[in-house]
Amino acid sequence: MIENTSAGVLIGAMNLLAVGSPLLASQVSHVATADQKVEKLNLASLKSIESTWLKVPMACKARNFDASPVELESKAISFHIQNIYKLFEA
Amino acid sequence: MEPKIIRFTWEEVALLRRRFENLAEVTSFDADIKLASRVASYGIFREIGTVNDELARFIFDFETAKPVRLESLKAELIEWNGLFGLRVFSTDCQRLELRTKGLYDVVHPEISKNEDGTLQSLYIFPEIINKIAQSEGIELVLVKSWGANSIFGGFDPSKGYYQTNFWEIENNDALKFSNLIRQGKIALMGTHDLVAHIAGLDKGHWPLLTVNAERVYQAIRSYFMSASRPSISALILPYTIGVVLDDLAQPPSYSSKNHIAVLDELLLKISKNEIPANLPTLLTQFPGSFEKIIKLSRTPNIEPQPTVIKAAVSEMIQEILKASLIKLT
């Protein structure tokens, strides 16, 4: 029956969790320690690379618009954008 | 009706910040257009006239045909016709001209203009820009972690914040950015977003852009599958990929073959895991060849020279490996 099967699966899963939990806890603890170690190394890395990082031109870094001012041929906005602005008229 | 100037008290900024912090990591403008308008306007407002202002170099004095002085650019938050936005103006000049494609589209055409067609101010309304983006099939969003880093974070408008900080490297920002672009989403929270990604938006180029964003997203995600907390050494290549993808998402570089050629090589390299993602390392210097790679990606007609691209990318990998001290204990 569905209920018994479901209960059986649930109990089985809980047994697995109960058996596995010391192992699970130690694995979680191990990962947390390793992450903390990487975090410390990363802080040290950022300090270490700062002088060479500052030599990189701003134009090459993230959040930079790779474009120069241009002579515009037309300042007119398109018909469909004009219509969008009209939607917001009082 | 004249626009009404709004001056946020510190309590109002604090309230705006709290409302922003209560949002999900990515929130569509449509979910709360009034809040999004305030956040976007405030974000742009904070950058105007500072070293982080990406609009400034495209705002010209009509008479001198030169960019207005950065120091002359000011902004005011405003309300007009039920819309929240901002006014950008120069204290030096009342006849302005914009010198990048698409920028006129995101400035209100009626209230910004003088009778001779020059601009006395730039009136910008994120709610209207949201509609413009939607008409191109793009969804504007707020990104909580980005805003926490800039608008509501340690951003000091007087300092070259984006120049000096490592935030995008440390936080593997390329993954988040590619995830947004592959879904047809763009953030609007500062001058970079407005001038680099939204002005000149063209849905015709987005099918290819979303394909490339998907490739980037899957490649970086796959690379870090085994590394819950990657080292800085492992984060340089994704950062490089992110800069190239950001360029590709800018209208002047839409569908750029040179960018795509460099992206192809970077994605090939990341798939080879030559810098192990989960190895604990101390990086001693930032690779000088990073600049070479970005410049190559911006070099027209570089794509028929794949060996040049391969050599530059390999050089960066080798630089990173040589500069990485492995710390096993």
> How many strand units of chain B?
12
Which overall shape of chain A is indicated by the principal axes computed on the Cα atoms? elongated
Query: Which band does the percent of strand residues of chain B land in?
Result: 5-15%
| Global structural class of chain A | mainly alpha
Descriptive report:
The complex is a heterodimer of chains A (90) and B (329). By secondary structure, chain A is mostly helical. Chain A has helices at residues 2-54, 79-87. Chain B has helices spanning 10-21, 33-47, 126-135, 144-149, 161-164, 167-170, 173-182, 191-198, 206-223, 232-248, 257-271, 289-297, 306-322, and strands spanning 4-6, 26-28, 59-61, 66-67, 73-80, 83-90, 96-98, 122-124, 139-143, 185-187, 281-283, 324-326. Classes of the chains: A mainly alpha (90), B alpha+beta (329). Chains A and B meet through helix 1 and helix 2 of A and helix 3, helix 5, helix 8, helix 10 and strand 11 of B.
Short summary:
The complex is a heterodimer of chains A (90) and B (329). With 90 residues, chain A is an all-alpha fold. Chain A is built from two helices and no strands.
What features would you highlight for this structure?
heterodimer; A: 90 residues; mainly alpha; 2 helices; elongated; disordered N terminus; B: 329 residues; alpha+beta; 2 domains; four-stranded antiparallel β-sheet; three-stranded mixed β-sheet; 12 strands; 44% helix; 14% strand
List strands and helices in order, with pairings.
The complex is a heterodimer of chains A (90) and B (329).
Chain A: H1 2-54, H2 79-87
Chain B: E1 4-6, H1 10-21, E2 26-28, H2 33-47, E3 59-61, E4 66-67, E5 73-80, E6 83-90, E7 96-98, E8 122-124, H3 126-135, E9 139-143, H4 144-149, H5 161-164, H6 167-170, H7 173-182, E10 185-187, H8 191-198, H9 206-223, H10 232-248, H11 257-271, E11 281-283, H12 289-297, H13 306-322, E12 324-326
Parallel strand pairs in B: 9-10
Antiparallel strand pairs in B: 1-5, 2-9, 3-4, 3-7, 5-6, 6-8, 11-12
Helix pairs in contact in B: 7-9, 7-10, 9-10, 9-11, 10-11, 11-13, 12-13
